Amino acid sequence: MKTSDRNPAAILRSLKKYTQADAEEAPAEAGNHKEYTIDELAREGSSTVRNVRAYQDRGILPSPEKRGRTGIYTDVHLARLKIIGALLERGYTLNNIRDLLIAWEQGRELNDILGLEVAVTNWQNPVVPSYLDYQNLLDDFGEDITPEVMTKAVKLGYIIPEGMRLRIPYPRVYNAGKELSEAGVPLDAVLTHVTLVREEVDKLAERFIGMIIHHLVDEKYGDDALPEGEDVPKLADFITRIRPLADAVVSDELGRVLEKSINKILVDRLANVLAHIEKNG
């Protein structure tokens, strides 16, 4: 734990501006599908309850399963909601989206289409998130966790305020930041460099996915086309298997580059020391 000259109570008061009115519970799971209330679905899909109901009325979002008076949604609904949101951001209207979905569903099995949507939009972090309270955060980072740093961590998605607790969706990243901070690397500097790394990782992911789409879709159906028939479930199944393949490639390549970079820095430093000795010897 780090010590700080600042008043811990004052730091906590500053950080708790992120506290929401009510604690939010993580969605339950049932079988192979996560389940959501309409509020949870809207939150996970970066939408609103009003929008969810409007999309149902327009026929572009499936109706939920009714259990008593409560509507229960699944990751199938979440996948569709994310796709709707992405299309709206690109300037499509709800009528455009409805027509697009109708055309997409014609001549194809709906379950296959929904399965592909889930595979594409739910390629989520397989690590179970951890939860902390604000005092835990202060204990871990001390004076490094200023309101400005907190804002940056929240924007990056490494800390998600949920009522009186904090969800940590990437515990390994959190622990890495903690170790670097304890070693003397300012947390603000870590987050600044993570932002730069993320830009490069975005480009890497786009190239990797672009390669897959080119060989599995474009070469068979042409650019800007969608898979058909039995290729739909096949593509969905392959997408679910991409992550471990990508992880293996990136992890091994990153390890190789890290080793090369560390050795170069060490050799360069040794060379500088030897040059200094020879100059003054």
From TrEMBL:
It comes from Alcanivorax nanhaiticus. It comes from the Bacteria. SMART domains: HTH_MERR. InterPro entries: DNA-bd_dom_put_sf, MerR-type_HTH_dom, MerR_fam. This is HTH merR-type domain-containing protein. GO terms for molecular function: DNA binding; DNA-binding transcription factor activity. Keywords: DNA-binding. The keyword DNA-binding applies. Signal peptide: none annotated. Transmembrane segments: none annotated. Residues 35-103 form the HTH merR-type domain.
